[in-house]
Amino acid sequence: MLTAVFHTMRANVIAAIATTLFLLAGAWPAAAAEPIKIGFGMALTGGLAGNGKAALIAIQIWAEQVNAKGGLLGRPVQLVYYDDQTNPATVPGIYTKLLDIDKVDLVISGYGTNLQAPAMPIIMQHGMTFVGLFGLAVNDQFHYDRFFQMQPNGPDAKHALSQGFLEAAMAAKPTPKTLAIVGADAEYPQVALAGARDVAKKLGLKIVYDHSYPPSTVDYTPIVRAIQATNPDAVFVASYPPDTAGIIRAAHELDLKTTVFGGGMIGLQFSSLKQQFGPLLNGIVYYELYTPEPTLNFPGITDFLRTYQPRAAEAGADALGFYLPPYAYAGMQVLGQAVEATKSLDQQKIAEYIHATTFKTVVGDVRFGKDGEWVEPRLIYVQERGISGNDIEQFKSPGHEIVLYPGEYKSGDIVAPYAAAKH
Amino acid sequence: MAVSLDLLLSAVVAGILLGGFYAAVTVGVSISFGMLDIVNIAHPAFIILGSYIAYIVNTRFGIDPILVSLIVAPAFYALGAIVYQIYHLAFERRGDESLRGLAFFFGLLFITEVALILVFGVDYRFVDAAYVGTTLHFGPIDLPLRMLVPFVCSMALLIGLQLFLSRSFIGRAIMAVSQDRLALQLMSADPARIKRIAFALSIATAGVAGAFLIIIQPVEPSIGRDYIGRVFAICVMGGLGSFPGMLTAAMLLGIVESVTATFYGPSWSPAVAFGFLLLTLAFRPSGIMGRR
Amino acid sequence: MRTATFWIVALIVGIAVFALSMLIKNQYYFFAGYVVLQYIVLATAWNILGGYTGYVNFGTAAFFALGAYSTVALYKLFPLPVPALILVGGVVSGVVGLGMGYLTLRLRGAFFSIATLALAVVVQTLITNWEYVGGSRGAYIIRPAKMPVLGNNYIEYLFLVMLALAVVAVAIARTIERSRLGYGFAAIRDDEMAAEAAGVPTLRLKLVATTLSGALMGMAGAPLPYYVTYLDPASGFNLAYAVNSIAMPLIGGMTSWIGPIVGAVVLGTVQQVVTVTISSALNLLIVGVLLVAFVIIAPNGIVGLVQTWLGPRRR
Question: Among the listed ranges A342-356, B5-19, C96-110, which one has the minimum average pLDDT value?
Fold first, then answer.
């Protein structure tokens, strides 16, 4: 028969009281304090934690530097942050706690679309200005006028991701006529591939291979082999670090023959992959957000990197810091400058100021347009050259990543076909 | 997509190599679940642990990862023995294995994953082995050593285990305890000791499989979760307690994933693979070569 | 107490909790509370199949996510009010539960569990490749700012709806427990072959269990898109749902309707608090350690511990 349950009223009441106490446990508010509190969630565990940790270090560096100079509006800056575990379901709770209980004065976002979108309704409800970090087209749904995106995709992110690659590829000789596109089954790659289809049509390229793969794929050789079987003149890949690694490996093992190879391959910007693959990266065309070419020497970037790199190496985060950290830092610069200029923490005034100003940051001049996206994109497509050995130091000096696009930062011409550029 | 014979052949060969790797990953579960009825859902966590140990020693001393895993295999064996001892005292003796044992291993999976995150961080790790990057070409067939070497070592591992189980005394005791525990007791062999040896062996294989894994792809603490499903799927499809069956199922899975990826679009391969599993369970639960 | 009385008491408790909640000013309580209530429903639903009938379901995420995605699909067609969406989610997941029951009729123990795991992967792959609901790109669900009728914040509405669902789920669980259905389930759990031999219609009962369990999980998932605003397969099928829905009944106690509640409240609250305080990889560690500790030391969960502490009682 069934085993015993709580039969007595007494036990039931105990359980009910205990349950109610637990339910109310989270409601006790914390006391507010003197410093200016900046709150955010950040991926410190889970799939995006590699970048999340790097971004956190950059933000902490900014806070320390600001405090060393006397703080914002004469008050010290205090960071209040929680780990969102790369799980969107935690975000509404985190931002509600930040705003309603911790009573933070300013908010910024976590890293990535998945971790920003869930916060939007709460942010909008509180009327806060929100600086987002690398979210793709988040504000297209909300059209919130106090939202600003720190990502160099510009107003047309979907196409910007592949525009640079394809235009740079068209400059190769012989001019490519066919294109293979492939990417992971996840948000960013799918958006990039959708954009690539449009750009390819405009440039007159015929798409001969168009597939996606699940992120849990182990062996990429069948995929690369299938791509080779269609004999494409150009291959565009939109991938995350593990698949980037797998595809590059497979491309080398199968001796992929094409004119231009590369794409929006996340992971190539990080030190761990650069170190691992070394000369295997030669010839690949992909986007960096920053590279130490003389054409990209923005004010403060070298100093920032010099502060960031040793700390990141110690903390086990990305040791080069060419991808997310300068943008996280620049986002704080924008927010800090807006607060100082308006001499207030009034969210409306801050938002208006940000809309109306061109900011000078470590990632160059930043101007926000409609829906808070950058007015001009700055996705820098480079080609790897002359890398030998696996030493990370060579990446810190110019000459190894030749900028092909956009025109105003160009530092060299593309070398094709891929087989020649490999060496 | 034009179905050319060359492409098909290459896809099948790639699938076989992949399947060999899957077999190494699964053989431990074949022992613990197939023979001992212990649902060790934490098996992938031990594999990842093996990957990380191969990674540290390889980065520090430059020793080949597979060699590292063989050197540390006794340590994994000891770890397996300890885990089994806890499991036995807490669950088997009380006769309450199924759900509680499962929950125990689930908890172990998370604890191991977090421990790895705390110690190593969440970045992807790679190893440097001398043969990674070289590919053998035989006509239309490419054999990257990155896949071939783990495949060959995996076959060696399987053959070694099969010989051990069928020829040695302890091996045969293990097969006996999986078939009829009471009879074994009546013959005055201690079933718990035999099971402990078997389970420890399964964890030792996990350590070796970990080295294979990090040679084939970059590793970070949470990728173990991708393997839980694959491992039990292969075990069940192949039939519990049968190595040849398990190997066949592993090869089949590898080939299905490879062919689907080549011709139809890789997005569908998990559905195809697990769809196969569901059908097998629905219509032939004893698996391809199962005993029970 | 009699079943009808229990329903009334449960309703009163639910109303009391809601009334007390209305006194709380800050919104965080509602966001965190929603998650805990959601887990009460998930844990209770899982326990119907797992604790009462003895079949361990690893695929909670599939049923839960199907409920969430049916909301997404309907949102694009024509938006319905949340209670209607819950019913739709329940029907969809219930049907899938029935289908899974048929497929796994002859499977026992670990085989059944592996089948549920396989099902979860298949469903996830299907959704990932279904462009209409966004596929792997995810879908945006914009929630209204204010709730209907009372005009409070929408999150309070979601909280209320989930509270109502939790009350209903718990009442259903207890009703089953005291009914012939429940005795049938228990017979299957204790010894399925003996039950069959004694004439218990085991196959039919198993189908009822899987359908009901699946339906409740789907209902728990239906409001999720409104809660998170952005839903993609990776987060909808998160392993956390499967793990928690097993861990909570286990920690609370699997043999009665109160166990899942206790487990969900304790573990859920701990997780919510840790997320916004010490906040790190420790969250996962806590689940793992609690699971292992309870499973070794307290096999009957917190309910079992309290029972032992209270001493033997008359039946």
Answer: C96-110
Q: What's the mean pLDDT in C208-227?
A: 94
Residue among B220, B213, B248, B218 nearest B234 (CA): B248
Dihedral sign for Cα A197, A199, A200, A202, please.
positive
pLDDT digits (tens, 9 = 90+) for C249-290: 989 988 889 999 999 999 999 888 888 887 666 777 887 888
Q: Is residue A22 part of a domain?
A: no
CATH class of domain segment(s) B5-283: mainly alpha
B112–chain A nearest CA distance, Å? 14
CB of B90 within 8 Å of a chain C CB? The answer is yes
Average pLDDT over residues B138-151: 86
Scanning every residue of chain B, which has its alpha carbon at the shortest distance from the alpha carbon of C101?
Answer: B282
Residue of B nearest to A255 (CA): B135
Residues A337, A310 share a domain: yes
B94 part of contact set with chain C, CB < 8 Å: yes
Contact C140 A141 (CB under 8 A): yes
- CB contacts, 8 Å: A317 with chain B: 121, 123
Inter-chain contacts counted by CB atoms under 8 A, chains A and C: 175
CB C263 within 8 A of CB C244: no
Q: Which residues of C touch B83 (CB under 8 A)?
A: none
Same domain, A343 and A415: no
Q: What are C117-165's pLDDT values in tens digits? A: 888 888 988 898 888 888 878 888 888 877 776 667 788 889 999 999 9
Q: Does the CA dihedral B138-B144-B145-B150 come out positive or negative?
A: negative
Its domain, for residue A165, covers: 157-296+378-421
Q: Are A57 and A311 in contact (CB under 8 A)?
A: yes
The answer to whether residue A212 is domain-embedded is yes
Structure-derived torsion over alpha carbons of residues C277, C280, C281, C284, reported in degrees to the nearest 10: 30
Tell whether C76 lies on the interface with A, counting CB pairs under 8 A.
Answer: no
Do A129 and A187 fall within a single domain?
Answer: no
